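Treating backbone geometry as a discrete language has practical consequences that deserve illustration. The sequence in question and its structure tokens are set out directly beneath this paragraph.
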Amino acid sequence: MEFVIQKSDLVRELQTITGVVEKRATIPILANLLLKADKDGLQVGASDMEVTIRGTAKATVIQEGGITLPAAKLHEIARSLPESEVRFKLLDRNIMSISCERTRYKISGQSLSEFPSFPKIDEDTGIRLPGKKLNRMIERVAFAITREDPRYSLNGALFLLENGKLTLVATDGHRLAFVAEELDVAVGDQGPQNVIVPRKALAEVSKLTADLSDEDTVLFGKTDNQIFFVVKGHKLTSSPLEGNFPRYENVMPESCDTSVMIPTEELAQAVRRVSLLANDRYGRVIKVSLSDGKLEFSSTTEMGEAHETLNIEYSGPEINIGFNARYLLDYLNVVGSPVVKLELNPTRKSDDDRKLEAGDKPGQFRPEPDGGVDYRYIVMPMHL
């Protein structure tokens, strides 16, 4: 096996592929990347047994062959090389020689036979989706996927594809992100596609689609027990999560009694500043108080107090609700609109009829303007 590749092409491909590699792989071969040189160029692949990715980089192949090499070390070496041609040559005992100008390396690899095979996919059954819109939709829900909840079905996002419409939903049990957009797509004879895409697979699809233009498309489909995404020659497969996704419709308010418009950046800055004195142990809870003409944020701990007030258009009873500050900032970082709409359904009255509490009713946030996309973020209140 011998080939020559430009350093920039090598690094670009490694950056695309290595995200799938497990940092603490329990099976040693899974810490490696598959490298295969053939008439099409250099094929690079990675697998963690649940998610796989493969792509092809432009290379001059002198002798065909294949090997697996340690992913982290290969990526580190590639980035350190000068901007020039890099020559790879496989020696005896699975030793790979890497040379670039005056730099030489020899690293040990493992045989291709030990690497897991990639699932076969039938691209003819795939459905084309607008890549840039898909990337934006993933960005708007991915942050709400749980990292701790033991319920397997929550470790991914619901991916619901129907004729003319794509819906993504993610939740961790305390908050829910929902986005639905009308698209020029048809599901054909396969019917609606309803799968739970694992968090890791969704993150890799987001990375693959990050630089796509309005004209670029993503091929999505299902083959046997695998889902697949094909993005500009890169093929990603994943085992969908089993189980039933929570009935998200049950927590989405059909209507709201109170709504206010808040400038996004001002809201983010206020939440960020007030949360500096919020207690991490209790989820960085901040108090949000709505009253005539103003929206006040506050936090109180043994370290002290923080208050900030925004002037808004509102006239009505005072409403108090507690929110996890990090949950609000996660949303505000991706919403992408100059204004957000906060919608509340206060139900529990205090002794004073002019003061209401949110009780156990969640708050709902929407972008303003919505850009023709149904994007909602529902956050459960925190105890004050």
